[in-house]
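Example (one chain per record):
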Amino acid sequence: MEIDDGKIQEHLRQLICGTVERTLNQLLEAEAEAICQASRYVPTDSCKD
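Predicted structure:
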């Protein structure tokens, strides 16, 4: 059985990048909700365009 280190490294890189991207997006979403005091796509008087 052969192990392709390059494929393993590429798979791990993609996995890590995806995890970091999702985490950062969740943090940004939470920060935006805290600033606007509303959930996404729910406008309030204090949060306008």
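Caption: The chain is about 65% helix and 0% strand.
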